[in-house]
Design a protein that fits this description.
binds S-adenosylmethionine, Rossmann fold, 8 strands, single chain, alpha/beta, globular
């Protein structure tokens, strides 16, 4: 689901960009390393700060990035004009039905978007489908612990509580689709946020 006006203001904000650049990117890089020269997908790219980080801090060669909200894609297009069209493809798309071929990316990045998708397990299945065997999934996510807080319930809009996840549910769903996280994950702020990197195993078997 798209962000409401309050969350959009919180996200499209210099403080969020500083946090993403200085803290989240550094932690993700420590957990998963760079993706130098690689082909990367970013889901829910918002106004494109994460995409910039994937080029500048992670060294990606080519990035495809999409968001459900056309207004976000317009903002990202302006921010990232220097990478278009040779190294970047930007488009409106849905993380629960990713418009990309199977096993076509070396890495997928998720900066806080999957908790916005009611059928979040479909997004996990789609990520596992498009990442190459041996490829990586970098994620920063917001858990049910945060979404249940008064501030989130009062001011922000998210899927209903039956669609929320915690660390265990999220990791179990990734691992069911062959994305192994193991200990490569940290919890922050009393478990409100999880930041980690999984690696797609080489087999395609989904455990039921
Ligand atoms: C919390 S914001 C994060 C934006 C950006 N990744 C960042 O870290 O600043 C979540 C983003 O996911 C997008 N979004 C929500 N549901 C989506 C979906 N089903 N598919 C793709 N993008 C989605 C929203 O429009 C929004 O830009």
């Amino acid at each position: 689901m798209k962000l409401n006006a309050i969350e959009k203001a919180l996200m499209n904000n210099p403080a969020r960009a500083v946090l993403q650049r200085r803290y989240e990117a550094a932690l993700l890089r420590r957990l998963g390393g760079r993706v130098a020269g690689k082909r990367v997908l970013e889901i829910g790219c918002g106004r494109g700060v994460g995409t910039e980080i994937i080029f500048e801090r992670f060294g990606a060669g080519e990035v495809h990035a999409f968001d459900l909200d056309p207004d976000m894609i317009d903002q990202a297009r302006r921010r990232l004009a220097r990478y278009l069209p040779n190294r970047l493809k930007l488009y409106v798309g849905d993380g629960a039905a990713i418009d990309e071929p199977d096993a076509s990316f070396d890495a997928v990045f998720d900066f806080a978007i999957i908790h916005h998708i009611p059928n979040w397990k479909d997004a996990v299945a789609e990520i596992a489908r498009v990442v190459k065997p041996g490829g990586k999934f970098y994620f920063e996510e917001v858990t049910e612990h945060a979404l249940g807080r008064w501030f989130y319930r009062t001011f922000l809009e998210h899927p209903q509580s039956q669609h929320w996840f915690n660390k265990e549910k999220f990791v179990a769903e990734l691992e069911r689709h062959g994305i192994v996280v193991g200990e490569n994950l940290v919890e922050r702020f009393f478990g409100d946020f999880i930041i980690g990197v999984g690696r797609r195993s080489r087999s395609n078997n989904v455990e039921n």
